[in-house]
Every structure is written in C-alpha cells, then in structure tokens.
C-alpha cells in the first residue's frame, strides 16, 4: 500500500471545493460555446477545475486527498455539467479512477505516488479506455499484450477515448497473447512511445471532450502496471462486487453530468420566458399559465431525477447492495429525464431554441450524446426485468 499521507480534514476540504463550484461552472460556461463550435480542447476549463481542487476530490484521505464519496461527486459533476458538459465528462473519468483506487487499490503504490505528484503540479486527467471499434458491450478486448521477457507490449485501438489528447494516464483493458490468455488492465502513460492519437472525434455533442481514437503499437508497460490479470471464466463474488460498485459509480456520476446540463437548459428557458413578449401579447410568455405549467413539468422531472441520484449515491456510500443493484435503472431514468426536459425546452422556445446564437441547441446535443456512456436501454431493462422475475419467483420447499 502507498504510505499514509499527512492527516487531512476531508470534510473541510470537500466543503471548500464545493464552495468554489459555482464560480468554476460560470468560468466553464463562458467558453463552452467557443470550444463546442471549434471542437477545441478546453485546457483552461480543466485547469480551473484543477485549481479549485475538484479534479482530485475523490483521492482517499490516506493518500492526502479529501476522500469525497459518490454523493459529493454527483453534486460536483452536476454543477460542472451546468457549465460545460465536456469538461464535466473529463472530470468524471478522472474522479472515477481516483475513487476506484480508494476502494480497490487499482494502481501499484509507487505508480500512484507518481500520479499524485503529477496531480499536485497541474491537471492530471485519467480515463479507462474500454471501447473498441465494433466490439460488443461485455466482449473480451481485442487489444493484445505481449510479454517480451521484461515488459508487456500493447497493440490495438481504443475508440471514444474522452480527453485522449490530454490524458496523463490511461487504464487500458487488454488480453494477453499467452497460450492461455488472461485479461486485465494495463496502466499506460499518455506520452508513452508507440502511442498515437487518431483525431477522428466529430460528434454531434460533447464536441470539446476530444474522444479520439488511441492507437497502441507495441507500447511498453512495466510488469507492475499490469493489474487484475485473470483467466477467462466467471468472476469470484469479491471481483463481481467490485465490478458492480465501479459500474454504479460510473452510471451515477455520468448521469449527474447530463442532469446538470438539463438544469442549464432550464436556466436559459426561464430567462427566455421572462424576456420574450410576442407581437400579439403585451406580457412575457412567463405570464401565460400553459408556459408556467410546462416549466413546472420540467422542474418536477428534474427534481425527481436529482433526488433519485442523490438517494442512490448516498446508499452506495453507506455500502448498501440494493443501491448498487438499482444504479443502472437510476441512470436510465435520470438520463431519460435529462433528454426529455431539454427537448421540451426546445419545443417551448421554437425557432430561437434551435438557433446557434443561443446555447439551448448545444445542451440538447450534449444530453443526446450522453448515450455513449451507458449500456443500451434495452440491455438495462432486460437486466432489471430479470432481477424482478427472480425476486418474484415462488420459493420452493
């Protein structure tokens, strides 16, 4: 284990970081349109998140960090999503890997000390690169690792790699080319020789998140940076529980980003309704009952989704298996609410809501693009349905 760091007042550190959140969100919002339009990477936004202490919020207290839990992480990511969803997504991936280190000790001790040193000097973005071109969800990776007697050599391509051009470290799932292959995670520095960024990212939304492809051509990985190497087969109960917790953190954290974006859309809608007075009216649209009722529908849906995420996150922080089990359904409901409310805002505003002179159309593109972060709805619903059938099955004997 990494040697214990000096004691940290984690609660105070988290409170300080949360206090800086509104200003950081405002800074992100000020440049979000520029980065979206040009597809440029938001380096200044990431720097602002880092300087506020938000990029390392989930570093464990034993490592000198604030040790934020999932409930606090959800609050932070919703706030950042209100400013710029792309920066919030980059922050989410980094916070998730620090949190996983806190729970499971993913990194070797020396490697994590190095990462924390880099994080004190400046932003050190992290991401797990799981997607591969044409690879079905849950399938074994085609990226291969060859042992040359001294180190592992990685070869393959990963796609949709958020922050690819600026990642300090990558956690790369791969399988060995041994006679009996094993799969695991290979921890790779972003500036490793043999690593190349293919700048193919040109998506509808989250355009500043730089989800380019990453190519590995014999990238060297030290033996102690190959972790969780296991042969194929069913996971042990302990490994499955750890994987379920990692998935739950991921689902709720990324959902929070998109709910934050939906709140930004609602903020803009409220300003529009207060200011817009059509030629056939003498008062703004906000004075009309049907617009107020429609805004009430949006508010009610967002309250429900936010309360759901908050409750599930708090339950996961308390170690409740039921909260972990319900997280996939929670993210589905939260993201449906995010998409539906932004679409409703666009409908209420008509042509202005679709104009690139206003941010509402960007919010819509960003929440729609959130689908890439989650399993398909039918996959989630099938699993939820199976669980319901098992729970309702008659007991024997």
Automatic annotation (TrEMBL):
UniProt domain Acyl-CoA dehydrogenase C-terminal: residue ranges: 253-377
Gene Ontology MF annotations: oxidoreductase activity
Keyword Repeat set for record: no
EC number: 1.-.-.-
Acyl-CoA dehydrogenase/oxidase N-terminal domain ranges (all copies): 26-96
SUPFAM superfamilies: Acyl-CoA dehydrogenase C-terminal domain-like (SSF47203), Acyl-CoA dehydrogenase NM domain-like (SSF56645)
Pfam families: Acyl-CoA_dh_2, Acyl-CoA_dh_M, Acyl-CoA_dh_N
Stored InterPro entries: Acyl-CoA_DH_C, Acyl-CoA_Oxase/DH_mid-dom, Acyl-CoA_Oxase/DH_mid-dom_sf, AcylCo_DH-like_C, AcylCoA_DH/ox_N, AcylCoA_DH/ox_N_sf, AcylCoA_DH/oxidase_NM_dom_sf, Mito_Isobutyryl-CoADH
Residue ranges constituting the Acyl-CoA oxidase/dehydrogenase middle domain according to the UniProt record: 137-219
Top EC class, one word: oxidoreductase
Keywords of the record: Flavoprotein, Oxidoreductase
Protein name: Acyl-CoA dehydrogenase family protein
């Amino acid at each position: 284990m990494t040697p214990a760091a000096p004691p940290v007042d984690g609660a105070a550190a988290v409170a300080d970081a949360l206090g800086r959140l509104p200003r950081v969100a405002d800074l992100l919002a000020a440049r979000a349109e520029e980065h979206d339009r040009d597809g440029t990477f938001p380096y200044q936004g990431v720097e602002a998140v880092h300087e506020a202490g938000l990029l390392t919020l989930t570093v464990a207290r034993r490592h000198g960090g604030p040790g934020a839990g999932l409930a606090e992480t959800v609050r932070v990511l919703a706030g950042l999503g209100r400013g710029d969803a792309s920066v919030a997504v980059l922050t989410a991936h980094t916070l998730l890997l620090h949190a996983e280190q806190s729970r499971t000790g993913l990194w070797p001790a020396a490697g994590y000390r190095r990462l924390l040193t880099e994080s004190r000097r400046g932003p050190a973005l992290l991401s797990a690169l799981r997607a591969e071109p044409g690879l079905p969800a849950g399938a074994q990776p085609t990226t291969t690792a060859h042992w040359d007697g001294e180190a592992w050599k990685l070869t393959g391509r990963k796609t949709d790699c958020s922050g690819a051009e600026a990642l300090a470290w990558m956690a790369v799932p791969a399988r060995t080319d041994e006679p009996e292959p094993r799969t695991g995670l290979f921890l790779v520095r972003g500036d490793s020789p043999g690593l190349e960024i293919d700048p193919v990212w040109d998506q509808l939304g989250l355009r500043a998140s730089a989800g380019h492809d990453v190519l590995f051509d014999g990238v060297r990985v030290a033996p102690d940076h190959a972790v969780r190497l296991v042969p194929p087969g069913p996971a042990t109960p302990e490994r499955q529980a750890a994987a379920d917790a990692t998935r739950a953190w991921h689902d709720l954290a990324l959902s929070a980003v998109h709910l934050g974006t939906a709140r930004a859309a609602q903020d803009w809608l409220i300003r529009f309704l207060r200011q817009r007075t059509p030629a056939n009216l003498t008062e703004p649209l906000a004075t009309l009952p049907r617009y107020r009722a429609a805004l009430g529908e949006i508010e009610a849906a967002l309250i429900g989704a936010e309360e759901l995420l908050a409750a599930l996150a708090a339950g996961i922080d308390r170690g409740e298996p039921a909260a972990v089990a319900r997280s996939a359904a929670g993210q589905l409901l939260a993201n449906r609410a995010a998409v539906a409310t932004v679409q409703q805002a666009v409908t209420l505003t008509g042509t202005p809501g679709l104009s690139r002179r206003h941010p509402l159309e960007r919010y819509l593109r960003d929440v729609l693009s959130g689908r890439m972060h989650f399993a398909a709805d039918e996959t989630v619903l099938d699993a939820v349905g199976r669980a319901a059938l098992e729970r309702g099955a008659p007991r024997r004997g």
